[in-house]
Every structure is written in structure tokens, then in C-alpha cells.
Amino acid sequence: MAAGVLGIGKFVPERILTNFDLEKMMDTSDEWIRTRTGIEERRIADDQTDTSDMAYFASERAIKNAGLTPKDIDLILVATVTPDQPFPSVACMIQDRLGARGSAAMDISAACAGFMYGMVTAKQFIDSNAYKHVLVVGVEKLSKITNWDDRSTAVLFGDGAAAAVMGPVSEGNGILSFELGADGSGGKNLYQDKEIIKMNGREVFKFAVRQMGESAASVVEKAGLTKEDIDYLIPHQANIRIMEASRERLDIPEEKMIKTIQKYGNTSSSSIPLALADSVENGVIKDGDLIVMVGFGGGLTWGAVTLRWGGK
Ligand code: ACO
Question: pTM of the full predicted structure?
Fold first, then answer.
């Protein structure tokens, strides 16, 4: 058996904040944001909806889609840099709300690479037969740490959640290869200071272009695959120019890259699973498809996975 995805679910807040709305709030333009980042709009959670609420809604859907109940979940991993509070973890909060008492539960802090870290951690527990079903969640309420007075970061981020139930799938499916890494010396380029996000955009951009390309190419090679085997690339939805760089490195056509940045912006830990959930819901990704996922984030961190969809 291998470790794969049994069910997936997402939640995005109803409120849409467009680039035109931002034009009224700060000195920016739809044109600048679209051409520099690819973002057209993003979702913003209301004051009553915190990170754990979004994580809960996405998880409920993922468990249902997996044909399981919360009692079947052995471990909950929540990737987030915007928990409701430092502790208890979001994982413990949703464990209680879902009714999965007794399962192990913890949060993972690896910023935008968090969901990759979560999936790979889940795989280890499943492969070793320690646990059968692991709920992996990527969730962020970045709007609560966004500095709305800083136009260079405020236009980038959005809120949202997506969750996947991972478990055993038939051989040849699920995660075929992975890579995780970090370079703490780059932490100064992207961090939270007191309540807000601080970023050296140019440095992060340079790092991301290089690392996303290298990691994506590395996992394809590790799995013994070639570019012809790739059905879809899901890069972390940070900036369309960074995403394009990873696509060009893999040398695959434009239509093979999944793109949700235009409607959700950068949702950090949630960005890759949100794009995955969207594509599964829309019928784009089907059983047997080979997906390459690659992310980078504050830390600095990175992670990539090749995943054959289906095989339950
Ligand atoms: N509207 C209009 N002008 C702006 C805006 C804005 N929103 N933001 C910046 N500018 C201006 C700058 O002030 C600058 O003006 P100047 O030339 O007069 O000084 C000009 O636009 C160019 O600014 P740059 O920073 O050079 O623009 P760049 O092309 O590098 O794009 C960006 C900036 C989009 C932030 C880019 O660097 C980037 O995408 N970096 C990576 C960001 C990223 O992926 N971060 C991940 C964070 S996720 C996480 O871990 C939470």
C-alpha cells in the first residue's frame, strides 16, 4: 500500500475584496496588482470567523468526501501561521469540534510550505502503519496579520482553508516522491513582527524562483518520471511570475499549471490544497492524474510532492 488522499474539502469566506476595492483603501491600482502578481481578488473572513472555524468547515467536508467519520481519524495535522492563539493548537480545537476525541493533534508552522510538510508527515505515519487516517489541513486568516498601511504586502494575501484525509491507497498511487527543506538564515526576509507581516519582496522573489524550480524538478526525478508524465503542476499561489518560473523549469505547457491566485490571492499554507480541492471539485483532476505540488514560504522553507490521484 501507499499513502494517498482519500477525500478533500475546502472553505473560503464569502466576502470578496477586489483590486478595485483596494484602490479605494490605498495608493495602488488593479493594473499594478494584476501585472505584478496575477491577483484579481481575494477572500477575507469576517470578525466572527477565525482560523479554527475555517479549518473545521474544510475538515468536515474532507472527512465526508472520504466516506469516513471523525471517529476514524487517528491524527490531525494543521498547517498554519495564523492560529487563533499560540495554544491550544488549531488541531486540538477542531478535534474537539469534529468529535474526534483521542486522536493525536498538532499544528505545523512552515508557512506557505506547511501543507507539503503536513502531507509528508502524514505519509510517514501511514507507511509505518502507526496510523491509518490522517487529517491534514492548510488554513490561514492572513487578514488578521496584514498591515493594511503597507501596499507592498497588503495586496497579496487572502484567507481560506482546505483539508485532505490521507490514508492507504493501492500501490502506484498516492505520494510517489517528496522533498522538504529549510534555510533559517533567510528568515529575516519574511516574518511576523509583533502583529504584522514584514517582507523583503525582492529577496523572497529571487529565492522562490530558484527553489520552486529546483524542488519541482527534483521530485519528478526522484519518482523516476519525466515531464511527459506530469498531468498537473500545482505551485504555491504566491505570484504568477514565480509560478510561471517553476512551470518553465519543468518545461510543461501552460494549461498543465493549476491557477487559483486570481480569485484567492496568496493564502499561504492553504494555497496548494485550495487549488487542489478546486480542481478536484471542478472535475479537472481525475483518478490516475499525476500531480506535482511545490511550495516555499517564511522560514525560509520549501517542500514538493508528486502525487498520483486516486487508488482508494
Ligand atoms: N501598488 C502600486 N505600487 C506598488 C505596490 C502596490 N501595491 N507595491 C509596491 N509598489 C511600488 C513600489 O513602491 C516600487 O516603487 P518604486 O520603484 O517607486 O520604489 C515599485 O512598485 C516596484 O516595487 P518592487 O518591490 O520592486 O516590485 P516587484 O516587481 O518586486 O513586485 C512583489 C513586488 C509583488 C511583492 C514581488 O516582489 C513578489 O511577489 N515577491 C514575492 C512575494 C511572495 O511570494 N511572498 C510570499 C509571502 S507568503 C508567506 O510566507 C506568508
Answer: 0.96
